[in-house]
Each structure stands twice: as C-alpha cells, then as structure tokens.
C-alpha cells in the first residue's frame, strides 16, 4: 500500500477521525442552525410539521419555470386569467430584462477575461466555510501540533532511508500519482533558489549546489546553449556554500513556514496563513529603516498635512508638493510591459496599466491646466472595485490622505472584468456614475447606488477630513448623449474616451469608433514614453 500511496490516504483519514474523536463520541455539532432545529424537534415531540400547506411550494417552482422560459411571469399569469397587466408590472419586467441582459454580458466578460485574482477567489469560494472537510476551525493545541510535526519528521527520515525505492516508484514526476502525493510534504530542489537568494547575479548556483549535495555528487558539467554555440562549465561541490548559504535558510523556511501548513493547514480552512516571527521582525525592521521608501512616504504625508492645516506654504510650494504627492501615488510615471501594451490591439480587453498610462499622459498634457485629476485604478478598485471587500488596515494611506483635490476627479474602476467611471465634481458636490453598457435615461441603476454607498463608506472610514470627506455628496445622472458599448471587450476604451471628453470639455460623438480610438491612444502613449536608447531589453 505504501508503494502506491494508498497507505498515505488511509493515514490521513484516520488522522482526521482521531483529531475529532472527542466531539464524535459526544455527538457534538458546531452548526448553530442544526442545534436550534434539534431543540425545536424536542419541544414539538420530535416531529417537524409544515403549518403552511396551501400549495405555496408548488407555486414557486411553477413561477420559476415560467420566468425562465418567458422572462415575463406576471404578464403570462395575467394573460392566462384574461387580464391586462398594468404599467407598473410592465415596468418591473422591463427592468428585470435589462438587469438580466447586463448580468449575462458581465458573466461573459468574466468568463473570457478572468484575471488571476478572480481565479484564486473562485477557487476559495468553491469550498464552504461552515461545512465539510475544510470548514473553518481553531488551530491545533501546541502539544498536538508538536506530536504531529514529530510524526511528519520521522516519516521524512523513513523516506530518506527508502529514497532508492521511492525514486523508482516516482519516475515521470508530474505524470506519476505517487510523486504528487509524496511531494506534498517535501521542499523540492526546484524551489531552493527562490528561498535562498533573490538576487539576479546567482541564478543557477544555488540550484546546482543543491542537486550536488542531495545526490551526493562531487561535480557537475553545466552546458549553456546559445544560437552561436555552447559554453561548458565545470562546477565542483561546495559544502561550505551549502552549510552557510543554503541549509540554514531552507531549514528555517521548512520548519517555520511549510511544516505548519502540512501539519495543520490554514489554506484549506480559508484562514490567513501564519506569519513566522522572523518575517514579522524583518518587516518591522524594514519599515523603521531610515532609507526605506515607506518611511519617506509617511514623512512626506506628514509634511503635506502640516502645510495644509497651518496654511503656511505659499501657492507655489503647495503646487510643488501636490505634484510630489501625485508622483508618490503613481501619477509621475507608469511602466507598461509589452503584453500590457499589446492589449491596445483590436478585440483585446484593456487592463488597468493601460488606463493609468492614459491618465498620466492626459494629466501632464491638459488636465493639470483644466484643474482635473484621476485616481489610479489600483486604488479605486480597493475602494469600489473588485477588491473593495478585502479588509484594509487603518494605516492605509488613502484613509489618512489630506490633499487639496481639484475641481474634477475621475475614478475608473473594474468589477467582474468590466470598466466603469466615477466622476466627482468638487464645485457642484455631485457624484456621477457612468457605465458604458447602461443608458443614463434608465435612471439610477442598482450598481450605481451600490458604488455610491461604497464610496460614502470609504469616506466615513477615513481617519482625517479632506476635501472629499467634507462634502455632502449628491448622486446625479449623466444626461448628455454619449456612445454606448456594443461588444464585450471595449469597456476600457469607452471609459478612456469619456474621461478624455469630460477632462478636455469636448462634446461626445455618437459615431465613436473604439478601434480607431485604440490607435490614437497607442500613438499618444508611444509619443509620450521615455526613450529606450539606454535601456536593456534582454
């Protein structure tokens, strides 16, 4: 059974039973609803009676089937009764149709262009937090944890003694089920480089030395192939390098980071990973380092806050420090990689880096003169976008931002791979939400209200009172005519066009062509980018 890894699965099953044996013997249940139902069953003599039998349950499935087939349940029922549905019923059904259509478009967009964050999020939400094998529960006691860790270490020693046999049974690695099961508790040599050293000057040395030490070989012949020939290297085994530069880091990482997850996994229980003490101490030390960027940001924020509160800075100094603040939060420059730049091609979904680059170019061209600014997409997504539900620390810089905002503020954000735009008018004290696929004539939509509430929630959570917090915002509708999105990939292009027209005081045209506008954006970004003459593209 050990050869085919069946014994490992049996051992894991018995381990789960043994860890829950006390609660199983006492027939305990951690589900509050089931415990409540148990008490109710005792009170009504062990029977659960349905006191509402008037075909209510049968009517609900019939209504659901009718709605799915016709999308007009109320109208169909009225027609069956030879009655004419009133205007309110028709309005409700039309609103539901539009909402369903928008949901289908969003689902299609999310299915086609789901990013890594959405993938991880979907994987996590597939497991129920309150039921099953991976439900949320407290960590193991220290004594129980040590006992399990000791058993795993003894198991590793046994595998070390049987390594020749295991090597035979785990060949072909990823295609071999035995290898997949065995490597769950191992720290393989392919990960040594990232653990021991993060500098680009020693790309292969750690990996080669680890292979030499593990296989007990004395030397290695390394051949590097190039289009013009090969270059051989003779590398000898270096025990001092292993003992000083590799073994301590690997041992510390395995015992403090990997072993706790193997013994008592928090990932499976949908809980945050344990932070070892040496990592926490390193973070604190880095933040307190006088040369660290975080400390410089905090000092710059404090200087700007003091100047704004005391009103001691002149207009020129305040303008200069405002530009420093813009540089600090991403308005000075944006690194646009080739794969991100190529999304500006036809029929490609626009990402946040493209929109941020577009913002920077327009800000320095004309928006700065027109008293217009835009918040970077990464920050807006944390306030109202996909990542708004992630818990944020109270020390987050956007909670402590004391900044004099200009008249018009743009906030592009992304939800379910669909871009929308928020327009804040400081002078008029208005909050305006623009969705490329929704007509403004339909009134304030549900998503617009939800985003408005998230924005107000962010302002209420701020630790300071800035220009945005001091305003009683009024939610308004964009009444001017504008081009509407007609496909599933150009939402970002329409959002950039809206910002361009509103920021430059230009009337929008209904014959707007998103593919032609992609070419204009590409030319603007290329003409405003830095020269690549002194940059290495390797």
Number of helices: 22
**Class by alpha and beta content:** alpha/beta
What is the percentage of strand-forming residues?
Answer: 5-15%
Shape: extended
Rg, rounded, reads: 31 Å
Report mean pLDDT, rounded to a whole number: 72
CATH 2nd-level architecture of the domain at 329-528 = 3-Layer(aba) Sandwich
Q: Mind telling me the CATH class of the domain at 329-528?
A: Alpha Beta
Q: Unreliable segments (pLDDT under 50, ≥5 consecutive)?
A: 116-126, 198-205, 311-332, 534-538
Relevant CATH superfamily of the domain at 329-528: Adenoviral Proteinase, Chain A
Regarding quaternary structure, what we see is: single chain
Q: How are the strands of the biggest sheet laid out side by side?
A: 3-4-5-6-7
In whole angstroms, how far apart are the ends? Answer: 50 Å
Helix content: 40-55%
Q: Count of DSSP E strands?
A: 7
Encode the helix/strand succession as letters.
HHHHHHHHHHHHEEHHHHHHEHEEEHEHH
| Main beta-sheet annotation | 5 strands, mixed
């Amino acid at each position: 059974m050990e050869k085919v890894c069946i014994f490992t699965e049996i051992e894991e099953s018995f381990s789960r039973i043994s860890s829950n044996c006390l609660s199983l013997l006492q027939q305990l249940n951690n589900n509050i609803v089931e415990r409540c139902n148990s008490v109710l069953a005792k009170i009504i003599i062990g029977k659960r009676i349905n006191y509402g039998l008037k075909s209510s349950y049968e009517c609900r499935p019939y209504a659901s089937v009718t709605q799915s087939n016709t999308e007009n349940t109320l109208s169909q029922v009225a027609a069956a009764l030879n009655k004419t549905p009133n205007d309110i019923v028709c309005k409700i059904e039309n609103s539901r149709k539009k909402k369903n259509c928008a949901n289908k478009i969003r689902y299609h967009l999310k299915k086609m262009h789901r990013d890594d964050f959405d993938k991880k999020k979907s994987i996590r939400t597939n497991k129920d937090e309150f039921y099953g094998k991976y439900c949320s529960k407290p960590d193991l006691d220290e004594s129980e944890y040590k006992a399990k860790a000791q058993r795993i270490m003894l198991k590793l020693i046994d595998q070390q003694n049987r390594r020749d046999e295991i090597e035979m049974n785990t060949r072909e690695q990823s295609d071999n089920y035995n290898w997949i099961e065995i490597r769950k508790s191992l720290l393989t040599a392919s990960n040594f480089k990232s653990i021991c050293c993060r500098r680009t000057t020693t790309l292969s040395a750690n990996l080669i030395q680890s292979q030499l030490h593990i296989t007990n070989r004395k030397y290695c012949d390394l051949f590097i192939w190039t289009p013009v020939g090969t270059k051989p290297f003779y590398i000898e085994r270096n025990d001092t390098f292993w003992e000083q530069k590799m073994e301590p880091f690997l041992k510390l990482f395995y015992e403090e980071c990997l072993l706790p997850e193997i013994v008592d996994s928090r990932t499976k229980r949908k809980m945050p990973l344990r932070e070892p003490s040496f990592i926490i101490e390193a973070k604190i030390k880095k933040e307190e380092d006088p040369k660290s960027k975080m400390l410089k940001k905090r000092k710059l924020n404090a200087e700007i806050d003091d100047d704004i509160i005391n009103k001691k800075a002149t207009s020129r100094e305040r303008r200069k420090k405002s530009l420093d603040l813009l540089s600090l939060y991403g308005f000075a420059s944006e690194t646009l990689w080739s794969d991100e730049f190529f999304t500006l091609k036809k029929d490609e979904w626009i990402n946040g880096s493209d929109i941020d680059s577009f913002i920077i170019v327009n800000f320095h061209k004309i928006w700065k003169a027109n008293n217009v600014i835009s918040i970077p997409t990464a920050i807006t997504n944390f306030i109202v976008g996909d990542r708004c539900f992630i818990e944020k620390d109270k020390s987050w810089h956007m909670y402590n931002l004391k900044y004099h905002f200009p008249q018009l503020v743009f906030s592009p954000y992304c939800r379910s791979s669909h871009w929308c735009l928020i327009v804040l008018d400081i002078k008029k004290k208005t909050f305006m939400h623009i969705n490329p696929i929704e007509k403004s004539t339909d009134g304030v939509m549900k998503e617009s209200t939800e985003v408005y509430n998230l924005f107000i929630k962010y302002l209420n959570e701020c630790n300071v009172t800035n220009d945005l917090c001091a305003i009683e915002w009024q939610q308004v509708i964009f009444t001017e005519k504008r081009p509407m999105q007609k496909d599933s990939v150009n939402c970002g292009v329409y959002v950039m066009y809206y910002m361009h027209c509103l920021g430059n005081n230009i009337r929008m045209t209904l014959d707007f062509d998103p593919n032609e506008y992609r070419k204009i954006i590409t030319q603007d970004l290329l003409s405003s980018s830095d020269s690549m003459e002194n940059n290495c593209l390797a």
